[in-house]
TrEMBL record:
It comes from the Bacteria. One of its GO terms (cellular component) is cytosol. One of its GO terms (molecular function) is oxidoreductase activity. It comes from Sphingomonas adhaesiva. This is Aldo/keto reductase. Gene3D superfamilies: NADP-dependent oxidoreductase domain. Pfam families: Aldo_ket_red (PF00248). Residues 23-289 form the NADP-dependent oxidoreductase domain.
Length: 302
């Protein structure tokens, strides 16, 4: 039976002309680190072959304060070690406005981008994403705003996060520059992008798929239900064969999809970051891959 082998080589970020690593590192919990620890984590990710770093202006917000804290910490690190910026593809997001909750209007997004650049102490980001869809802003207005960000030289590529397939298509129809990425939740415990048309659309439109919460919010590492235990067992069966851990097997399972999905790893542990390369040691048979999917579905495939 043929096996599917993953390559650690860089891949295109959609039609942007930017190449990125097949695994990204996310900064959702980065704000709690100090500058020294944060730099250690970034360098560990770079040493593991990661080039795509994903943050957002909302990261660090705890419901009362901390908005922008992850970006501010990253800016402090860049101030101490500016060469780190040149080694990464830097992505951030905007549009979540507690307690409103969302604003993708032109005035707000332009201000949000400038604020992100100031906090990170950079003159541009490589990828700017609308964090969540704002129902009250017409996609044509969002499109014009994103285009102006690119033409101003502040953004190299544009993407969306948590959009539906229809919302993505509507926005793309108004854009004169290519939409480069879609960032949905996706893991063996959250399969919606496989069935709601999102990943199929990404392949159709040549969008990079950046998967957040690839470990199911930690439930793959610490399963608590019968379904989660079944998924863990299916992953362990493959992981044990190749001498890697369950998390590496999970990332590898996600990346095996022909859409070349990029998992965003959120661990804030340097040793676990160093283990990311283990994901490329696995060779998936179709049977093994589908065994995980069947466990995740909780029922046989039709």
């Amino acid at each position: 039976m043929s096996e599917i082998t993953l390559s650690p080589d860089s891949r295109p970020l959609g039609k942007s002309g930017i190449t990125v690593s097949p695994i990204a590192w996310g900064m959702w919990r980065f704000a709690g680190a100090g500058a020294a620890q944060g730099r250690t984590l970034i360098e560990a990710a770079l040493d593991a072959g990661v080039t795509l770093f994903d943050t957002a202006d909302i990261y660090g917000f705890d419901g009362a304060g901390g908005f922008g804290d992850a970006e501010t910490l990253l800016g402090d690190i860049f101030a101490e070690a500016p060469a780190l910026r040149d080694r990464m593809v830097l992505a951030t997001k905007g549009g979540i406005t507690p307690p409103v909750p969302y604003d993708s209007g032109r005035d707000y997004l332009m201000q949000a981008l400038d604020a992100s650049l100031r906090r990170m102490r950079v003159d541009h980001v490589d990828l700017y994403q609308i964090h969540r869809p704002d129902i009250l802003t017409h996609p044509q207005e969002v499109a014009r705003t994103l285009e102006d960000m690119v033409s101003a030289g502040k953004v190299r590529a544009i993407g969306v996060s948590n959009y539906t397939a229809d919302q993505t298509r509507a926005l793309a129809s108004f854009l004169s520059v290519p939409l480069s990425s879609q960032q949905p939740e996706f893991s063996p415990l959250f399969l919606d992008p496989l069935t709601n048309g999102l990943i199929d659309q990404a392949m159709e439109l040549n969008l990079a798929v950046l998967a957040w919460s690839p470990l199911g919010g930690g439930r793959i590492a610490q399963p608590g239900t019968a379904r989660e235990e079944a998924v863990a067992a299916a992953l362990d069966a493959v992981a044990g064969r190749f001498g890697v851990g369950r998390t590496a097997a999970t990332y590898s399972w996600i990346m095996t999809h022909p859409a070349r999905v990029i998992p965003i790893v959120g661990t804030q542990n340097a040793a676990r970051i160093a283990e990311l390369a283990d994901a490329f040691r696995i060779r998936w048979s179709r049977q093994d891959w589908y065994d995980v999917l069947v466990a995740a579905r909780g029922e046989r495939l039709p």
